[in-house]
Amino acid sequence: MICQISAFEFDIASTAGWYSSVAGMLTGFALLAMLLPLDHEAEREDAECTHAVVVFTCAFFALLVLSVNYAVLAGRAGGGTVAAVAAHEQMLFGPAFGLSTLLLLPSPCCRSGWSPAPFSSTPSWH
Predict the structure, then answer these.
(1) How does residue 122 score in pLDDT terms, banded at 50, 70 and 90?
(2) What is the distance, to the nearest Å, from the Cα of residue 77 to the centroid of all Cα atoms in its chain?
């Protein structure tokens, strides 16, 4: 019995392409989350709204840069040292991708005064 690991090799280029697509999609959500709190006309400046916009702006630019980095990584094809460098870069991009995605968790709805009604399936506005 011969163990052939080559059939189970991890294709970094195709995986990086998918990560680039997901990061690009999350970039769009970050842009939407950044613009939603700014879309209302308020007489006073809400500090929580300002903090939310700053967090979502950081997430937007981090995900934008990660999307481009993953797209460049998806274009690298080859074996040997090229594959080793690509694996190293993907390992470095992973934590940045995870932390940028975690920045999107604070909902813009909670920041702008919208919250779902308790024990109800329909949202209510305050």
Answers:
(1) low
(2) 25
pLDDT in tens, 10-32: 778 888 889 999 999 999 999 99
Helices (H), the chain: 12-35, 47-74, 81-102, 108-111
Longest dimension (CA), the chain: 76
Domain spans of the chain, in order of start: 13-37+46-107
Q: Pick the residue with more confidence: 96 or 5?
A: 96
78-96: burial string, b at 16+ Cβ within 10 Å, e else: eeeeebeebeebbeebeee
φ, ψ of residue 124 in degrees (nearest 5): -130, 145
> Helices 12-35 and 81-102, interaxial angle, to 10°?
20
Q: In a 3-state reduction of DSSP, which class is residue 125?
A: strand
Q: How many residues does the chain have?
A: 126
pTM of the model: 0.71
